[in-house]
Design goal:
3-stranded antiparallel beta sheet; Glutaredoxin; 12 helices; about 375 residues; 3 domains; about 45% helix
Length: about 375
């Protein structure tokens, strides 16, 4: 029994630590996933709390995993782990049954797993944690109370520190389709060998106040007694023919598409600002250096935002007030920019470098070896 408890502690503890760390690498990713759940349930008013909830949940997974391995405050954490895994199993079960959202985000964007795998994983974890809960009185701490407490304090600082770093300086491990060395136009195309969705034609008829669906080969002999309602295409098999980057369409005040013009530039600078919750004054001086260096080499600079008018207003009193401002879908911007704002250096659509607003100076260094360019003007 002792060996079974030890093995189970290691399995559960390591899984929780791994899950927490991989999501702590990108707390905004889990925050957006939480918003998907809230929108499905008509609870959008909680969206403003998702980032805080994400940070706390990621930290708790790491802390709880270490607490289990160290046997620290095990009576408290056995209860907390049991409650948490029941909650997780509900969420993954909901996703598996309804298909919404398509992915629960259990291991972030770095390890996407199916809803079925997520649910089965949590079912197994529920059994394992239930076993540990039943035998919680047999679990003894590995160290003295003081050493255990100091260890957990350091682990707590680490769990929050990783997330602070990611939110300010971008994730340490970038698992998103806009990562360095990726070509954006290529990622916007459906990958070779992808399987498209499969649909079947269905005719819907009404009779006696009820609606009936018929395939073309299954129409009833007394069809004349039915009233035709509509023809529909019914999904019979979900494919995987989706590009890695979706919704990345750039346009200006005239709504004319400028996406290919921007991405076809030999070199370009993109400033992603989802909104202006971080004031321009906090990063204006650093971005001015990028703008000045880009102008000296005729490298075009574009601002990409969800708030076109607000951007023009905020840039009006800055040295870079004349840069073209383009709008884009907020989901695409959130995927491209995990820090707000984020600056990209592109080479014919390939991401050479990207930095959060606290490290914009690194973009300037990346332009040193770039020769003077011929400028291509995008559509307004």
């Amino acid at each position: 029994m002792k060996a079974a408890i030890i093995i189970t502690r290691i399995i559960v503890g390591v899984l929780f630590i791994f899950s927490g760390l991989i999501k702590a690498n990108d707390p905004l990713g889990l925050s957006y996933k939480m918003q998907e759940f809230f929108e499905l349930w008509g609870m959008e008013h909680f969206n403003s709390w998702t980032l805080l909830s994400s940070i706390l949940m990621n930290a708790f997974e790491i802390i709880a995993g270490f607490a289990l391995l160290l046997g620290w405050r095990i009576k408290l954490f056995s209860w907390l782990l049991l409650l948490l895994i029941v909650f997780f199993t509900f969420l993954t079960g909901y996703t598996y049954i309804t298909g919404k959202p398509t992915n629960c985000g259990c291991f972030g964007d770095c390890i996407p797993i199916s809803s079925q795998t997520s649910f089965l994983k949590d079912v197994v974890l529920t059994i394992l944690i239930g076993f540990l809960f039943w035998h919680r009185n047999r679990i003894k701490p590995l160290f003295s109370n003081m050493v255990g407490t100091l260890s957990m304090l350091l682990i707590t600082i680490l769990s929050f520190g990783i997330q602070w770093y990611s939110l300010n300086y971008l994730p340490v491990v970038d698992c998103l389709p806009f990562k360095k060395e990726n070509n954006i136009p290529e990622k916007m195309r459906i990958p070779p060998g992808a399987v498209p969705d499969s649909f079947a034609i269905v005719f819907i008829y009404e009779k006696g106040g009820k609606e009936f669906e018929f395939a073309p080969a299954e129409l009833p002999e007394d069809l004349g007694t039915y009233n035709f309602v509509k023809r529909s295409d019914k999904l019979v098999r979900k494919g995987n023919a989706e590009p890695a980057i979706k919704g990345f369409a750039l346009s200006g005040i005239t709504d004319q598409d400028s996406t290919q013009t921007v991405l076809s530039q030999p070199y370009s600078i993109l400033l992603f600002c989802e909104d202006f919750s971080i004031p321009v004054s906090a990063w204006k001086n650093d971005f001015e250096k990028i703008y000045t260096a880009a102008k000296a080499k005729n490298i075009p600079v574009f601002a990409i935002t969800t708030q076109l008018t607000e951007a023009q207003k905020n840039f009006a009193s800055t040295p870079f007030k004349d840069i073209p401002v383009l709008k884009c879908d907020y989901t695409a911007i959130r995927t491209a920019a995990r820090a707000n704002p984020t600056v990209y250096l592109l080479n014919a659509g390939t991401v050479i470098d990207k930095q959060g607003y606290k490290r914009m100076d690194k973009i300037v260094k990346g332009m040193d070896a770039i020769p003077v360019q011929q400028l291509i003007t995008p559509n307004p």
